[in-house]
Amino acid sequence: MKDHSERDLLRELFPDTAREEYGDGPTERTTLGLYPVPDGRLALVQGDQLAELEPLERAGKAAFMCDLCQVTRSRDEVNVYRVGVAARRYLYLTLCTNTPACQQRAGAARLSALADRVFPIEHA
Ligand SMILES: [Zn+2]
Q1: How far is it, in rounded angstroms, from Cα 23 to Cα 38?
Q2: 65 C-alpha to center of ligand 1: Å?
Q3: Distance from Cα 64 to the centre of ligand 1, integer Å
Q4: Which of 69, 74, 82, 117 is the most buried (most CB within 10 A)?
Q5: Cα 80 to ligand 1 centroid, rounded to whole Å
Q6: CA angle 84, 86, 92 (to 5 degrees)
Q7: Taxonomically, which superkingdom (predicted)?
Q8: How does pLDDT run across 47-91, given as a tens digit for each residue?
Q9: Best CA proximity match to 118, nearest among 54, 25, 23
């Protein structure tokens, strides 16, 4: 994805966030957030970077630790997501299905640490 298409996607999915982030020109404000997308994906936004987290089928383990809030959850409460971080290279993340609650538990520092694992994405 090119930068402009990521911005277009962000505008489409999260117009309020896009307005804040890209509004009338460059801004020094750093946006950081994980946003559920209606089709089941998650969007991780850090500044002007956007990663799409694609849900995979749930594995059969009894419990998982969420990579964001780092709380151990039952498998009904988490999903495994795949995010492309470079050509043919994926990062797999286990995340709570209740994204807002998860983000609240995690706090900004853990969210930032998660974003640092994902970004920058090397586009082929
Ligand atoms: Zn969590």
Answers
A1: 24
A2: 8
A3: 10
A4: 69
A5: 11
A6: 35
A7: Bacteria
A8: 889 999 999 876 565 678 999 999 998 888 999 999 999 888 999
A9: 54
Domain ranges, ordered by start, for the chain: 3-118
3-state class (DSSP) for residue 67: coil
Render pLDDT for 1-43 as a digit per residue (tens, 0 to 9): 445 666 677 777 776 666 665 554 544 556 899 999 888 899 9
Across the chain, the runs of DSSP E, i.e. the strands, are: 32-36, 42-46, 49-55, 63-65, 72-74, 78-86, 89-96
**What's the CA-to-centroid distance between 7 and ligand 1, angstroms?**
26
Query: How close is the Cα of 19 to the center of ligand 1, in Å?
Result: 27
Q: What is the mean pLDDT of residues 79-104?
A: 93
- The Å distance, Cα 25 to ligand 1 centre, comes to 34
Distance 99 CA to ligand 1 centre (A): 7
pTM strictly above 0.70? no
Distance 26 CA to ligand 1 centre (A): 32
